[in-house]
Amino acid sequence: MRLTPADELARRVSALQKLLQKKNIDGALIMQSADLFYFAGTAQRAHLYVPALGKPLLLVKRSFARATQESALEDIMSLDNVKEMPRILNNYGFKDIKILGLELDVLPAAQYLRYQKLFAPAQIVDISGLIRTVRMVKSAYELDLLRAAASLNHTLFSQVQDFLQEGITELELAGQLEAVFRRAGHQGFVRMRGFNQEIFYGHIMSGTNLAIQSSIDSPTGGPGVNVSFPQGAGYKRIARDEPVLVDYVGVYDGYMADQSRIFCLGRLSDKLVQAYETAVEIQETIKKMAVPGASCADLYQRAVDMAAASGYGENFMGYPEPVPFIGHGVGIELNEWPVLAAGFKMPLEEGMVIALEPKFIFPEGAVGIENTFVVGKKGLETLTVFDEQIIYLGQK
Amino acid sequence: MRLTPADELARRVSALQKLLQKKNIDGALIMQSADLFYFAGTAQRAHLYVPALGKPLLLVKRSFARATQESALEDIMSLDNVKEMPRILNNYGFKDIKILGLELDVLPAAQYLRYQKLFAPAQIVDISGLIRTVRMVKSAYELDLLRAAASLNHTLFSQVQDFLQEGITELELAGQLEAVFRRAGHQGFVRMRGFNQEIFYGHIMSGTNLAIQSSIDSPTGGPGVNVSFPQGAGYKRIARDEPVLVDYVGVYDGYMADQSRIFCLGRLSDKLVQAYETAVEIQETIKKMAVPGASCADLYQRAVDMAAASGYGENFMGYPEPVPFIGHGVGIELNEWPVLAAGFKMPLEEGMVIALEPKFIFPEGAVGIENTFVVGKKGLETLTVFDEQIIYLGQK
Question: What are the Creatinase N-terminal domain coordinates in residue numbering (chains A, B) (predicted)?
């Protein structure tokens, strides 16, 4: 299995340490699987202590054997009882922790209250913003993994034609494509950050099911197969002359590529074709504008303006309730930073990776395009290379 | 789609209210998807306020349209801005909330701190134990759904013979079986409660891969396909004369059945066969002992004693590090209460649903059995009916 190299971990830890120093935080105690995978190279159950200065220490609960095989960090210890942690950190030279950072955006309150007591009188602060800031800019090593994820998607999108036929249910199509993903090495689980952020591969819907909204922050929702998990593919049979959205997330060695294409058995209406072309125009415009230094809020506004000028403004990014963004960072979670949204003032940097997804939703269906890009010197470079037309099948 | 009936929701809400009254808690504010699905009949993004006395109020963020279609509760309102909540609750007659219960086992700390401020000077207390207590005992309605989930598993286990062949990788087998699940109506996403509790359908491993431990609280771990998600099926090719574990979770209309069987192409060693038979004997003994009133800790101890007497005690429930339980509640999450563990003193009640999974792990493989049962008057009744022998394939 591919292991994160020591110098890559060192670069990541050092980037976090700079932010800890700037905020006068003595150290960060990292516990979430995705963050552990990122900073320690292992997703085994553990605590990673990253001091503002000095070498990080990984304290592993389970499995210690695997963590030592997987992590290139130098200092790894077994820790069975969390209560021992303050003493161990102290013995290790991390004395007098006054301000301790935790991932308060994901750490449950009950655990937060226990750590607060355990590390008293230290002040506990939220370092999730610092972590997301570090993770936002991808290294050359990470870009290789993102290209591997994009290649997984290429395999998937190339095989849609083998399964998509009139009368097949969305769910059946989803199941077949998920088997393609798995055979190609997909890890299955797609990580989203935060409370109640649940997703399963992505969304495959057709026609009117594309207009069904759900709780998820996505331009499409979908019925799902039941009320318990109300998103994604449903039991609707796919018909001719309606859009079929395949919006799936390839995950390879932990890194993900988010991509959508519109397929159709037959022909789409002129209206949907026009809206699709507008989506592609928006993509092309944003690709050029999204140079290092550009503001996410400006990109968002330009897309909204272009959608309005096309006459389909009220169908842009969700109908009747749009989501307030046109794209989002991706990496080892599906909802990373930056967010291409009005409220996101941070400028783009080279190496950020973004899924841009201009989509138009109508009562009879939805169209649009989504690719995962890296911010390069001259704008967005496409990672998820695949035919960008509406993909018509079954013409014979 | 199947909607939870009003009288079923009323029963659940009333059971929670009795516990709130007993603990002198003024009301519970429920936000987690699984708990919303259980108490409100919808998993849309919402807050459900359950007063200790009176009718519950569902405040929906997204999608309001779907929540009103899905939930049989009488009082449903749209709420866009969480800050409005104290005012709305007050206007609605829920005045002077002094003690407010939140799901502190899953609610992230950052959100907890915001609610604490929002509802000040109310005291915030953890009601996750009360919720898990209510959810622990299943109604006749829920048992029907659990039987439907078991039937999904029956479909899956019946088709293993169609895909399992020498040389197929675990991952390929997993992908094929997952497609069977999806075609049969599986929702895909398998819910586990708590921080870092990630699972994807379950575990399919063979031979030596069955001995690989992982972070998950499960007797088997598995390599997974990468370091990011280090559990479950890997790239190992399945060989003759080794055990193949299929431990998968069927989820139908939100309810799940957890089940394992051992398959084998060829023959297993006498040692593994003996260990398997011991696992079945443990299951049979626990089934009879697990009557209403029995102590979970006693059941656990009996299983451990039987394993020790068989001579394979140190291989029971994980090797080299066993997990400290032999079974766990299931319902709409995979790790519900009760837990058949030394520390779980609560007596069994009729209607509890438990996955019992006596397993033995050896360096060369693992064997054991798992079924989902309901606690009946005379002990455990099997929901996941299927051949309970080692299933030998490819004999011709």
Answer: 12-137
Cβ atoms of residues B299 and B326 within 8 Å: yes
How buried is A53 (Cβ within 10 angstroms: 0-12 exposed, 13-18 middle, 19+ buried)?
A: exposed
In a domain, B69, yes or no: yes
Does residue B35 surpass a pLDDT of 60?
yes
Closest CA to B283 of B269, B265, B262, B267: B262
Q: Residue A117 burial (CB < 10 Å; 0-12/13-18/19+)? A: exposed
Question: Are residues B146 and B111 part of one domain?
Answer: no
In chain A, which among 280-339 make CB contacts under 8 A with chain B? 321, 332
The answer to whether A32 contacts chain B (CB < 8 Å) is yes
Query: Does the complex come out with an ipTM higher than 0.95?
Result: yes
Q: Is residue B327 a contact partner of residue B354, using CB atoms and an 8 Å limit?
A: yes
Distance CA A205, CA A188 (A): 19
Tell me if A110 and B105 make a contact (CB, 8 A cut-off). yes
Residues A141 and A130 in one domain: no
Domain match, A229 and A165 both: yes
Q: In sequence order, what are the beta bridge partners of A256?
A: A251
pLDDT over 60 at B396, yes or no: no
Stretch 130-159 of chain A: residues touching chain B, C-beta under 8 Å? none
Kindly report, residue by residue over A17-71, the tens digit of the pLDDT.
999 999 999 999 999 999 999 999 999 999 999 999 999 999 999 999 999 999 9
- Residue B241 is part of a domain; what is its CATH number? 3.90.230.10
Q: Name residue, tokens 């609280």.
A: B217
A308 plus A188 within the same structural domain? yes
The domain boundary, picked from A77, A112, A135, lies at: A135
Which residue, A365, A274, A360, is CA-closest to A313?
A: A360
**Residue owning tokens 């299929």:** B246
- Distance in angstroms (rounded) separating the CA atoms of residues A58 and A50: 9
Backbone dihedral angles phi then psi of residue B325, each to the nearest 5 degrees: -155, 165
* CB < 8 Å from B in window 200-229 of A: 200-201, 212-215, 221, 223-229
For B286-297, write each residue's pLDDT tens digit: 999 999 999 999
Provide the CA A379 distance to its chain's centre, in angstroms: 20
